[in-house]
Design brief:
- The chain is an alpha/beta fold.
- It has one domain: Phosphoglycerate mutase-like (Rossmann fold), CATH 3.40.50.1240.
- Helix content is 41%, strand content 18%.
- It has 6 helices and 6 strands.
- The longest helix is centred in the middle third of the chain and has 19 residues.
- The chain starts with a strand and ends in a 5-residue tail after the last strand.
Length: 182
């Protein structure tokens, strides 16, 4: 049986890869470390985007663990250009996982890269808990692979930060929200 945590980054000053955490986000990262320190996490892998690394760093320091990064955990690219109706377009990609806007990636493509990281981490974990720190859309797509009932409305309810605890094995996974938003 495996246990792992999918963690959405803390409040950031923007969406760019180098966007830092806000002052609130930095405080949230410390709070996140305090709340997760006793869960037995033995490995932390984060998106290389600054907001994910900075969200995970206090937990890694507190646990005395290296903070690994993996490019496959970056946020899902919806399109190559800004879309004024991006939220509606995003919702459409949850209904049609193969829908791909120019310069972007489909939900299926994004989920596949996130799942590849997850499967590798599970194989190496030996049953020990680990954490993946990433971004809202990618996390929701990975969670949906584990529980098909998860969808756009779950993404829309996510907070920064947010934490999901996943337990199980094989094709039998149980997803529960482990963050109360405060």
């Amino acid at each position: 049986m495996g246990v792992f945590y999918l963690i959405r980054h803390c409040e950031a000053a923007g969406q760019a890869a180098d966007a830092p955490l806000t002052e609130t986000g930095r405080a949230q990262a410390v709070q996140l470390a305090e709340r997760l320190a006793g869960l037995g996490i033995r490995r932390i892998i984060a998106s290389p985007f600054r907001r994910a690394v900075d969200s995970a760093a206090p937990l890694a320091r507190r646990l005395g663990l290296p903070l690994e990064t993996d490019e496959r955990l970056i946020e899902r690219v919806l399109a190559g250009e800004n879309l004024p109706d991006w939220r509606e377009k995003l919702e459409q990609t949850f209904r049609d996982p193969d829908l791909c806007y120019p310069g972007g990636e489909s939900s299926r493509q994004a989920a596949a890269r996130g799942m590849a990281v997850l499967e590798e981490a599970l194989a190496a974990a030996g049953g020990r808990p680990f954490a993946l720190v990433s971004h809202g859309c990618l996390i929701t797509l990975v969670l949906r692979e584990l529980d098909p009932a998860i969808g756009f409305s779950d993404w829309a309810r996510m907070t920064t930060p947010d934490v999901y605890r996943v337990t199980g094995s094989g094709s039998d996974w149980h997803v529960s929200r482990a963050w109360d938003g405060s």
